[in-house]
# Entry
Amino acid sequence: MIQLILLIQLILIPSLLPRRYFVVINAIACFYSLASLAATVANKGRKSGLALVIAVADIVILALLFSGNGAAAAVGVVGEKGISKVGWNKVCNVYTNFCAQVTASVVVSFVACLAYLVLVLLALVALHKRSP
# Structure
């Protein structure tokens, strides 16, 4: 019974949902980055726990970014290969430009996530060096 409910939910979920998630998560990360930059500049030179809070929030945003990339990549794979067991055909042979743009955006976002990961690691190392 549970498998039937999950299958019905899988069929009824629109295919754009993971792409919307991808866009929303990237927008949230963008606005968070601007807000944390403003807070860091405003708090420059003062002793507070803001750096630790920002470091933890950076890790949460990083996890959200990677999950958004995973969701968008999964939809891309389904579009490229299809799922014969549930009757979903390949669509990238019909919408080649759209699939190429989605692939490019996922790849660029993944590279940006890796750069964000390096920045978070550098911030954590700097925070560790400043700790007593």
Remarks:
- The radius of gyration is 20 Å.
- Helices lie at 2-12, 17-42, 50-81, 96-130.
- The chain has a mean pLDDT of 79.
